[in-house]
Write a structure and sequence with these properties.
The protein has 248 residues and is mainly alpha-helical. The two termini are 26 Å apart. It is built from ten helices and no strands. The chain has one domain. 80% of the residues lie in helices and 0% in strands. The relative contact order is 0.12.
Length: 248
């Protein structure tokens, strides 16, 4: 049974590779000492996780910018043409589109940093994100056209052997994001409605919602990495490469 240090490596890469890495570090530590072992172990963890951490920061920043830009857009545009003159179908789907676009604004930059722009999952996510965002803007005719085009892309991908896996990965990631945001918001609403003490109420009121939202994004990042590893990174032998970073 692997110890905690090896088990952590196994979570970041496959168990066979983790055992080899840990075995090499342990063998070299016999001559170089335990202090060297822990420094080398820390460097290994960084090598395996730096891309994930960079993707997490980039995605958080981009999602925040997109969210702020959308609120600015709503503030400086007339509500009349977004409701009365807009297609009724899109207006009635506003809450659903919000739950779709907000995770996509996070997943797209996260996946782009993690897997590169040539990855089919990233390319499909980009197309769906653009279409869903324009639909969420409730621009007459343009939003309806983008909604139809996005649905057409999804249906085409479903019947394509090349794009079926990326579509499945995107749907599973979107479902995980939907559930994560809904669950964390539900838990947060319960916590924020019960302030145990007046000295902590200010903290929960002003920072609780932000912490809750960041927690849902972290869960979404792990879900995206896990789904991509399962569906997009399997080799013909059935093994998967490192889940987060790249260790040469």
């Amino acid at each position: 049974m692997p110890n905690l240090s090896e088990a952590l490596l196994a979570r970041l890469t496959d168990p066979t590779r983790a055992a080899a890495i840990y075995g090499d570090l342990t063998e070299l530590a016999q001559a170089r000492g335990r202090l060297w072992f822990w420094f080398a172990y820390a460097r290994t963890l960084f090598a395996l996780t730096w891309r994930f951490m960079l993707a997490l920061v980039a995605a958080t920043v981009v999602a925040q910018i997109c969210g702020n830009s959308f609120h600015l857009y709503l503030t400086h545009t007339s509500a009349a043409w977004r409701t009365t003159n807009g297609p009724f179908l899109l207006n009635s789907m506003g809450p659903l589109l919000a739950y779709i676009t907000h995770p996509l604004w996070f997943v797209l930059p996260f996946a782009a940093v993690m897997y590169g722009t040539r990855d089919r999952f990233v390319q499909l996510t980009f197309a769906v994100t653009v279409g869903a965002t324009v639909a969420f803007l409730f621009v007459p005719f343009a939003s309806l056209a983008c909604s139809i085009a996005t649905l057409a892309i999804a249906v085409s991908a479903l019947f394509s052997s090349t794009w079926r896996r990326p579509l499945t990965a995107l749907l599973l990631t979107g479902a995980a994001g939907f559930l994560a945001i809904a669950a964390v918001n539900a838990i947060g609403a319960t916590l924020l409605s019960h302030h145990p003490d007046w000295r902590t109420s200010h903290f929960f009121t002003h920072y609780g919602a932000m912490m809750i939202f960041r927690s849902s994004l972290l869960l979404l990042a792990f879900a995206c990495a896990r789904v991509h590893s399962m569906l997009m990174e399997r080799s013909p032998s059935g093994r998967t490469p490192a889940r987060f970073g790249h260790l040469d």
